Amino acid sequence: MRLIPASLPTRRLFASLGLLFAAASMPALAETHPGQGQLVSEVARDTGKDPQALNSLLDGAKMQQSILDAISRPAEAKPWRDYRPIFLTPQRINDGIAFYREHRELLERIGQQYGVAPEYIVAIIGVETSYGRNTGKYKVLDALVTLGLYYPPRATFFRDQLKTLLELPDSQLAGPVDTLTGSYAGAQGWGQFMPSSIRDFGVDADGDGRIDLKNSLPDIFASIANYFAKHGWQAGGPVAARAQADGAARAISVKDSKPQWPVEQLEAWGYAPLQHMNPGQPSSLQSLDGADGMEYWFTFQNFYVITTYNRSPLYALAVHQLAQAIAEGAGVSESTQ
């Protein structure tokens, strides 16, 4: 029987099917990290970046056990009596006063622009990185790969941060992605911004076309101030005020630091502020284990804003007290705050 040659379209169909069968029979490409292929696919889809370049970048990242160890013992797990001395030291206060004085003109100009008291910008930098001296030794890429792909308890958050890091344009980074260093959590720069905060709140204040949170003080100060302003900082508003509980004070449990009662309601429940406060001011209450027993603090909107930077009320109170000490030592007037 004479065989009839297949037509050109038919031959192309058979060739395509052959390639598909061959591909199906090949083993899947090995991933350096679990979930790397899916992550690369998402970043390439959303940004148009080259998958091969993204894979090469991630192939160079390393899972680090020391990062997993560090996140399991955060300082915020300490009681206030042990947490406060870490940040409210004479050296950190004096260094903050000197830092404020050295950069006073720039700090106060940016503070005025964003409506944020400049001593709080300084206090954030003081608590986070000791005024830029310790911005972190870990590669940011290693930290976010470790926590985003190897740490199930918070994998969703850190994977999102890793994806954001890979998606950031060069103009929003202080250098190539694989050279960036920061904390064990992947925060970078003097203010320790996570990638999503760089994307959403970073400011190119010096006008050089790049958001550089490691080398540009205008960018650093303005980005922190912008973060606070965008989260609802109230210019001239209170942050926290010490209170005293009477013997019949009602026990109060708070989920977060968001203001939810007027001061007068807390007073009716047995808590009296040690300074005059507007009785209608929205507030919350923090009960902390201090060096001399329980401490009670009325906290307000600006305190809550600080907790969006770090959700621990211990952190927010340390920033507040450091800011107050810096303002007092630097001779900051009420009109500047």
Describe the structure.
- With about 325 residues, the protein is an alpha+beta fold.
- The chain has a domain at about 50-70 and about 130-230: Bacterial muramidase (Helicase, Ruva Protein, domain 3).
- Helix content is about 50%, strand content about 10%.
- The chain contains 15 helices and seven strands.
- It has helices spanning about 10-25, 35-45, 50-60, 65-70, 80-85, 90-100, 105-115, 120-130, 140-150, 155-165, 195-200, 215-230, 265-270, 300-310, 315-330, and strands at about 140, 180, 240-245, 260, 270-275, 280-290, 295-300.
- The strands form two sheets. A five-stranded antiparallel β-sheet has the order 4-6-7-3-5.
- Helix 2 (about 35-45) crosses helix 3 (about 50-60), helix 8 (about 120-130) packs across helix 15 (about 315-330) and helix 9 crosses helix 10 (about 155-165).
- The longest helix has 18 residues, at about 10-25.
- It is globular.
